[in-house]
Write a structure and sequence with these properties.
This protein is mainly alpha-helical and 113 residues long. It contains three helices and two strands; from the N terminus they run ααββα.
């Protein structure tokens, strides 16, 4: 996953540049490649980050798939995910219905009314 993301970023960086509004077919094709590289990075980042958080859970906690994990303290540099927020406490569910079938999720509010 990291190699895929790194490749997408490298493609994006190589394809950057400014182009005039009118251009040849080659220039238009290059701009199309650049736009697609940007979109791949933007749309790929959440799924790569989700997988990295899953790997962090599986390797560094006793939590398993189909369990909800709560990080009780803010993330630091040891958590090797793409965009960790050091001011946020994370609560994440990693669900796989292949082995357990349908799952019902109930919402609980902890805020006083």
């Amino acid at each position: 996953m990291k190699k895929l993301f790194s490749g997408l970023v490298a493609t994006l960086l190589m394809a950057t540049g400014t182009y005039a509004q009118t251009g040849s077919l080659d220039e238009l094709a290059a701009r199309q490649v650049q736009r697609r590289a940007v979109e791949a990075v933007i749309w790929g980042m959440p799924i790569v980050n989700y997988d990295l958080m899953l790997q962090e859970m599986l390797t560094k906690t006793p939590g398993r798939v189909n369990q909800v994990i709560y990080w009780g303290k803010p993330l630091d540099w040891k958590n090797q995910t793409l965009t960790p927020n050091p001011d946020t406490l994370y609560l994440m569910a990693f669900l796989n219905t292949k082995d357990v079938g349908p799952i019902a999720i109930a919402s609980v509010s902890f805020w006083p009314r």
